[in-house]
Each structure stands twice: as C-alpha cells, then as structure tokens.
Design a protein that fits this description.
This protein is of the alpha+beta class and 385 residues long. It has three domains: 139 residues, no CATH class; 59 residues, Orthogonal Bundle (Helix Hairpins), CATH 1.10.287.130; 143 residues, 2-Layer Sandwich (Heat Shock Protein 90). Helix content is 62%, strand content 11%. It has ten helices and seven strands. It has a five-stranded mixed beta sheet. It has a two-stranded antiparallel ribbon with strand order 1-3. Strand 6 and strand 7 form a beta hairpin. It is elongated, with a radius of gyration of 43 Å.
Amino acid sequence: MPDLDEFDAAMDNQPTARGYWVRGGLLLAATATIGVLQYLTPKTSAHWLYILQRLYYIPIVLAGLNMGTRGGLAVALLSGVAFASGTPAIWTVSRVDVLDQCLEICIFCLVGLVAGLLTDWRRRQEVALRRTTHQLHQAHRELQQNFQAMKRAERLSALGQLSAGLAHEIRNPLASIEGAAAVVQRESESEERRREFLDIIRKESRRLNRLLSSFLDFAKPRQPNLEMVDIDALLDSVLVLARHAGNGVRLDLRKQIEPGLTKIECDAEQLKQVLLNLVMNAIQAMPRGGSVTVAAERHETGVAIDVCDQGEGIKEANLDRVFDPFFTTKETGSGLGLSIAHQIIRQHGGRLTIQPNSPQGVTARISLPLQVVHRNDQDTNSGSR
C-alpha cells in the first residue's frame, strides 16, 4: 500500500493533463462553432439568434463541471468574445445596447466561475474523503498487526507460565523419588524400610502420571462427541458418583431442575467430567460438611447449570485466576481441573463462571447453548481464558 505522500501526489494529478486538454479542446471547439453559427445567421432571424445566444451556457457549464474554475472561466471568456463578435446582428434586430452585451458576458463569466468553484469544492471533498479512507486503512492494518503481535506475545507468555507451572509440579515428586531411591540403595536399611520407600516411589510415580495426563488433557483436549443429552439423567449420574466421595462428612447433595427442561447437544462424558469436578471442589471446600445444590434451568437461548456450595469461598483477589493452569489454593492438586473444565465448556460454545455467594460459598455456573455452533476455534488452545 502506498504511503500518504504518494497518495496525495496521485490525487493532485487528477484529472490527468491529457484528459484535461482533450476535454478543453472539445469545449472550445463547441464554443467556436456556436459563434460561427451566430455570425452566419441572418439578422432577420432574431429567434434563432436568441437560441444561439443561450447555447453558449452549455459549454460554459460543462467546462466548469469538468475542468474546474480555470476551465469554466476560460470557456466563458471565449464565449463572450464569440458573442461580442456576432452582436452586430443582434443589435440590428433586437436593439440591445452595449450595457446589455457587457452584462451578458459578465453572466457568462459568473456561470463559469460558479460551476468551476462547485467542481473544485467537490474534488477537494473527494480528495479529503479518499485521504481519510487511506488513513483509516493504514490505521486498521497497523491495528491488525499490533493485535497479531499481542496474540503471539500472549501465547508465548501462556507457554512460559505453563512450562514454569509444570516444572514446579514435577520437581517435588522427582525429589521424593530421588530421595527414596537413595535410601533403597543403602544396604544397611531393613527390608521393611526399603518397602516403605518403594511405596513412596510408586506413589509419586502415579502422581506424576496423573499430572502429565491432566496436562495433556489441558494442552490438547479432544473434540467433543456431540449428542442430544437429557440433563436430568446426567445430573443424577454425577450426584451418584459424588455421594461416594464424602469420606464420612455430613453432606446434603440436592438437585433442582426446571420441569420439562429440554435436551441439549453436548458430549455427555465431558460434561459429566466438568460437573463432577465442580461438585468435588464444592465438597472439598466444606471439610465440616454442608449443602451442595446442583440446579439446571432454561437460560436465555440455552441452559444454565449451577453448582452452589456453602464452603469457605474464594478470595476476591483469586477470582480472576481460578482458571489459570496450575493455580490452586489446595495443599494437594495439580491446579488443572478448572482449566480443563473451562476449555471443555468453551469447546461446547458455552461459558464457565464462578461468583461468590452471600454470606458464604461460591456458585459455579455453566451456560450452554441448546445446539453447539460448529466452528474452527483456533484460539481454543492458545490459553486458559
């Protein structure tokens, strides 16, 4: 795309010199033709002489509209000369005086000047409009370039955070495995002691395997297998699984569903994974027991599913970070559960939000459309948000 100076130079050259002179020559020829016809017309034909006199305005106006002020005045002056050359015939027939002749020539010039000024103003407006359009195109292009640069920077930043978080999470199990292996290598240790540290190695190895599996699920989530799913039956299966995770704590798991709630298009296994993760988080947030309510209702153009608890809640400063990978306030946990849940809901064309309750606890809301819009979302894996 040319720069602004080249654009202005191109506009200044409009119209081109060749076209200018061609149009000017044709209009001058038309004016001279009218003058010749006026001169050759018999003085007794006053009606035709009057018509020829009015015809001078046609090339004057055309010159002003096509060639601007200079062209309009030039043709107007030539028309005045041609008109003055034929006026003896007019005087003889219509008896106009010299003042009328000068006034007619002045009107010629005024018409040419007005037409030319209007044309020059229109061209200046066109140049200003094209200049503004050109500047807007440049600004849009620079904005797109900056946006792409910001997206690349955001992806690099997210990659760095993921790498740092994964390295931090792997370091502790590796340290435990290394320490346990060193103890096992000592011949002085008893058999019972060696079995104890071998159990540590197996436990930390399983922990690493779970961590890497979760990371892979986050980094490259599978595409949802869409089908029409009954929300009521899905919530029942989630609550059945969650009831076995109470560990003796007094829990009140409730289900509230709007009557006649329609089916939605989703991946049943993925949505069950998300809901179970949210319910388990709610249970873990209430170590002394409490109530967890799972509710579903029609919401705008889709369905909203809420998981509400009476737990310790989330600090306001952490609300913007709950979906960040490897962010967790628990002593144990990878910090990838909510990140994976967030991505799954995004793949379904929905939203996952977490808001504090009053006076305590939080509500995690899943907003899903009735049908998933099939699209290629290139940004799904670019970050956790």
